[in-house]
Specification:
It is built from 6 helices and 7 strands. By secondary structure, the protein is an alpha+beta fold. It folds into 2 domains: about 100 residues, Type I PLP-dependent aspartate aminotransferase-like (Major domain) (Aspartate Aminotransferase, domain 2, 3-Layer(aba) Sandwich); about 120 residues, Aspartate Aminotransferase, domain 1 (Alpha-Beta Complex), CATH 3.90.1150.10. Strands 1-4-5 form a 3-stranded mixed beta sheet, covered by helices on one side. Strands 2-3 form a two-stranded antiparallel sheet. The chain has a two-stranded antiparallel sheet with strand order 6-7. A hairpin with a 2-residue loop joins strand 2 and strand 3. The chain starts with a strand and ends with a helix. The mean pLDDT is about 95.
Length: about 220
């Protein structure tokens, strides 16, 4: 049995001195556009220290063909028996873009943390729940909790009028989706979060002026309630 660690939104984070992606037999990261290290499309990477898994992943990503995976054939010969696989190679354009962005990745993470700190300071004292962060965390999303579905709907309408994009997703928890047959689970915390969670802009290109404009808009919203 292998443990596949989902680190899609955690590249660069640590827990008790260990990097995300190093806890399982593999670590899986996403390069989808809105992720921490995003390309211009879909993409991702898998890391592992397990030689057998590494060889299997090389084969699975390219139709069980080791000859086109940019590895030394002497180190990773193609097996005699071929199996079904996929076409999951990262294309050259995405790789070139990500190679450039990776050089600035620590700066991106630092800026996201600065934005989160500005939000936490500026929104302090308002009747909403702010996220908390540990020393090893990275900021993929800045999620606040508004209090109720009705309040969230009003908040969304107000922010739209201010030309501020917010994201409201996962409004139906997985265990409540019909035909998944997971309704035997009782997950009151998950259900509560799904009713009032809102994602504020937190991408590193935001300026302090723009972040403060968002904070001012949120304060104005609550002043009118």
């Amino acid at each position: 049995m292998y443990i596949f660690e989902d680190g899609a939104q955690a590249l660069g984070s640590t827990f008790k001195g260990k990097m995300a992606g190093s806890f399982g037999d593999t670590g899986c990261f996403s390069f989808n556009t809105p992720k921490l290290l995003g390309g211009f499309g879909d993409g991702g990477a898998v890391v592992t220290n397990n030689r057998d898994l590494c060889e299997k992943l090389y084969l699975l990503r390219n139709h069980w063909n080791m000859a086109q995976t940019s590895v030394r054939m002497a180190d990773f010969p193609t097996p005699d028996i071929v199996q079904w696989a996929f076409k999951s190679r990262l294309d050259n354009i995405q790789a070139a873009l990500l190679n450039v962005k990776f050089k600035y990745y620590r700066d991106f993470l630092k800026r996201r943390k600065q934005i989160a700190d500005i939000y936490c300071q500026g929104l302090k004292g308002l009747p909403l729940k702010l996220p908390t962060y540990g020393d090893g965390d990275v900021i993929q999303e800045f999620i606040i909790r508004i209090g109720s579905e009705d309040m969230r709907a009003k908040f969304k309408n107000f922010m739209d009028q201010k030309s501020i994009e917010i994201l409201i997703r996962e409004t139906t928890p997985n265990h409540k989706v019909k035909n998944l047959y997971l309704d035997n689970f009782s997950l009151p915390v998950t259900e509560s979060i799904s009713k009032d969670a809102v994602r504020l802009p937190a991408y590193p290109e935001l300026t302090d002026e723009e972040v403060n404009y968002i904070i001012s808009a949120i304060k104005e919203f609550y002043a009118k309630q």
